[in-house]
């Protein structure tokens, strides 16, 4: 029952207090007062209701005593009728009584029954009221839904009405706009008609009588209305000329002589032309006077009016022509003086162009404040500066030479003109860029600056090539005048320690020695020429063509210089060979002649060694020369040839062909070097080798295991040669040279040893020599040569073994060299015994 009351008590029944009736007993009054409070608060609590119901019957309960765990024990038995309350309930609710019934129960039971009855009645009344409210709400919802539907239909109708109204308003607006346009057009036509009537009136005044300008309206003579008069005069002249069908400004004679002209306007055209000319001249005079007085406002007013006459070109030209830089002779003389010093062309042009830019900046401020179209004025001013002032200065400093009449080198040659031209072009291009930045309208100042040098670019490539050839010829004359130069390699690898340096023999005919620094100078000339070409030839295709021609000049110069240097070094080799042949004597001469010849041969040998050293140095320098050219091609030339198809490959082929002559001279000289080296080795072998070296006397002394004197001298000589050959040659050239030298040395040694007879101990001495030669030629790093000398070491064993062991030796290690072995066996001193005891020669 309690749960049902609590659930029902939570319902909202604000109107309950108006419909409920209770009895007027004290208990009922309590109920009414609480229920009235419950109705006002809108919520129901059973605990609060019960407290209000029984608080007069039951004594008040102390909650602290209830919650205290010792309250029951401390309470006397007689309190509350001997009954105690349970501690299980907490909060503000009334605790449940436990124990025997208490005395107040009789009073509480009717009270509870009445309260229950009243609560049930109240609940029924609330339910009845709620049901009635539900029905009322449902009826109201139905009525409201119906009303909403009607409103929606009405709103839709309103939207349709608004759409029709909007369309109507739009149509009315468009009609009003059309009417406004018509009215505006009509007003414009009316204005045009009024202006036309007024213009016709003025036109009739100009058409009254030829040359009569006195009867015109005051407008055309009022100085305060000059702008309006100018505008009307221009319109009248345009209408009259259109009517006559004649374009442009015309004179009276031209009008009279014009066929098919409309009659009646010839006089007007002539008078208008005269009036416009007179008005323009008057305005120009006023403009000039104001310009001299620096009255910018008056100048601006005149310029604005004059802009109606041929767009104001006459005023612009008049202003530009009146600038001091074009009229003052002192300014022109100062310009010539500024750039007149030959050694300071760049400095002079910098000063002149700086002064021009400063003047233009000042003029730009004036032009902007005076003319309606300042860009057009600046365009005319910049064009006049470039074409008159700058051109005059350039024409003064650039005296173009001719190929038929070259400038001598003592006066600077072609190079002086080309350097001046490059400086002028560079500085003028910088000026043009500054002018373009400063502002010059539609004028392309850079293109106009390029046009100033058009005549100088026509034969530029030919002049550049002529300059390079002129420099080369001058350098050759200078080198020949200096005579033979000291050879830096005279104190070189071939000079023995502690010995004084041997001076290289002078080149044939007193010619100069080839130098890498000279070729480096050629390359610097070419680099400078390429830089000028890049500056003076901006078009990529033409630039590639010119650069190729310039590089071809370098190829010819380096090829000729290198080839001649190698040929001069080869001439020294030939002279040393001729000297050597001159002192080769037979064996029938006397000892005195032999001694003199030996001394001369020694001198010839020294000359040959020096000439070989000099040629090796020449080859080394030739290689460096080619490397300089190749580096210049890679770093500078190749990228400039790319715009032209095939130019790069063709230029590489030209470079190979140009260096082929030098390569041929180098190969030919290297062959002569080998001949000279081998001839000196043969001379040493002939002079130092004794027959007793390989057939020593049997004097009881132990055999000598040292190399022979001839072997030692030859190895020492070859070591000196090898030292500067190793430092001069490289790559395949070095490998081929060392291989050929080793082969020739091998052949010469065999031919030399075939002249001697060998004993067993002499064979051991020969084997020692061969071992010495083999050890030395290993430094050649030529496998073919090493193999030959190893075979030679095996071959000389035929002088050492006993006769009966020779067949075995030939059939084993000397099987492939049997023919050479048989030749060596014939050199044994016991050859007859070998021949008789063996069948090797059968």
From TrEMBL:
The keyword Magnesium does not apply. The keyword Transport applies. One of its GO terms (biological process) is exocytosis. It comes from the Eukaryota. Residues 228-482, 510-837 form the Exocyst complex component Sec10-like alpha-helical bundle domain. Residues 111-222 form the Exocyst complex component Sec10 N-terminal domain. Residues 116-143 form a coiled coil. Residues 498-508 have a biased composition (Pro residues). Residues 62-94, 483-510 are annotated as: Disordered. It holds the Pfam family Sec10_N. Keywords: Coiled coil, Exocytosis, Transport. Belongs to the SEC10 family. This is Exocyst complex component Sec10. It comes from Riccia sorocarpa. The lineage of its organism: Eukaryota, Viridiplantae, Streptophyta, Embryophyta, Marchantiophyta.
